[in-house]
Amino acid sequence: MGVIMDFDVGKFETEMNRGFLQILVLLCLEKSMYGYRMLSSFRQIGYEVEENTLYPLLRRLEGKGLISSKWEVGENRPKKFYKITAKGKKLRTKLLKIWKNQNTIIDNLMEVNDEL
Amino acid sequence: MNYKILEDYIKEIDHYLVIKEGRNEILNEIKSHILEKTESESGEINDNALKAIIENYGSPKMVAEKYMEDYQIISPVYKKYLFLYTGLLFVIHYGLILLSAFSNYEMVLFPFFYIPIMGTHSPVWNQLILYIPMTFFYDFGLVCLFLYFVTQNKNKIKLPWFEINLNWLIEVPEKAEEPKKHILGVMILGFAAVLFVYLRYNTLFFLTVGGEKTASAFNSAASKWLSFSVIFIYLLEILHYTSRFFSKSAWVKLIKDGIILIILWLIINYPIEEALVDFPYLNLSTIITFALLFLSIMASINFIKSLIEVIDSRKKSGSKPI
């Protein structure tokens, strides 16, 4: 039973994370950063992301013109650095507004439930 | 420095990655990430450390899939179209195959299909049965190919959809009287008798004239083929009569009469004269020709009557065929 519950939560968590990770990446790329560094900084703030999830997402965001990329040869090997674009910043503002609004709705509903 | 384990992994991802633009960039980025992570977590890059990081990154197929989440070979919205179009194409295609088989003509619609003249290497019936799965798989593949191009096309294409109401197949009442159990019983007894005669004499067509020894009227191959045809028609009649206890569909009768007509057509096309055994007292060839002519006329009349019954019932029920 416990296993089934964990599996179900995992699936819902993946779905929820999809949108959340987009906002997180757009927030994180205010300054230029490459994938491995991004994953490390997420981990530091307590958010675990699989690498094979992050890179395809970066590619999709780049394809939509929300972030840009540039290859740079650092210490010993080339790395692909990403940075948010003006279009990405506009979308980020809108997404944050939606997210805050959703949080308020959930808080209000929780309050109503508590009163019941 | 190149690491074989890493190169093999990247090569396998490349194999699954169906992306035209930016493919090398994706592969280089994965490679760079794995190398940096290995170095960072193990202090040095070696095969064992790389192996652990690669295993954690995921299978090449799964990694490639994540890059192609938006990519579809055939859009799932076309699932119903796939089956409807395959069904319609199959009916047309197999109809042409039947037409080709009975008219003895080959048909070509380059590059879509080629139906050769049948019966040259093996019996027509064998080939017609073989053509059922072959035609289905061919048509299924053709529709898949068509839907693939529609999916890949960026323009909005609205495919035609046909509403087929199958209720007419079971709702059309047959005009015939209520079936009776004792008649079915007599039919089954008759069938048992026919089977007994066939098993006893290996034929249903034998002659005894003037107290002479009983003999088959045809050679063994023809005798077998004609006897089976009669047994099959008899069985078809019994099955049809039995079906009337459950359903009064005029369509079932129409289908039964259609099959009988096809069997008679095949019998007529059989070189009976060559298969006849010499018999001194009778001109068997003439008798058989007349008998077959009579049976064919009767079967044709039955078929036309069934067809009229179906059309009549359709008009009364006021629904459209398709």
Characteristics of this structure?
heterodimer; A: 116 residues; alpha+beta; Arc Repressor Mutant, subunit A; 3-stranded antiparallel beta sheet; B: 322 residues; mainly alpha; 3 domains; two-stranded antiparallel sheet; two-stranded antiparallel ribbon; 12 helices
Order of helices and strands of chain A: HEHHEEH
How many distinct beta strands of chain B?
A: 4
Instruction: Provide mean pLDDT of chain A, rounded.
Output: 89
Q: Report strand % of chain B.
A: under 5%
| CATH topological fold name of chain A | Arc Repressor Mutant, subunit A
Looking at the structure, what is the overall shape of chain A? elongated
What is the name of the CATH architecture of chain A?
Orthogonal Bundle
Oligomer: heterodimer
Rounded Rg of chain B:
33 Å
What does this entry look like structurally?
- The complex is a heterodimer of chains A (116) and B (322).
- Chain A has a 3-stranded antiparallel β-sheet with strand order 1-3-2.
- In chain A, 69% of the residues lie in helices and 14% in strands.
- Chain A is an alpha+beta fold.
- In chain A, a hairpin with a 4-residue loop joins β2 and β3.
- Chain A has one domain: Orthogonal Bundle (Arc Repressor Mutant, subunit A).
- The mean pLDDT of chain A is 89.
- Chain A has 4 helices and 3 strands.
- By secondary structure, chain B is mainly alpha-helical.
- Chain B has 3 domains: 64 residues, no CATH class; 87 residues, no CATH class; 148 residues, no CATH class.
- Chain B has 12 helices and 4 strands.
- In chain B, strands 1-2 form a two-stranded antiparallel ribbon. Chain B has a two-stranded antiparallel sheet with strand order 3-4.
- At the A-B interface, α3 and β3 of A face α2 and α4 of B.
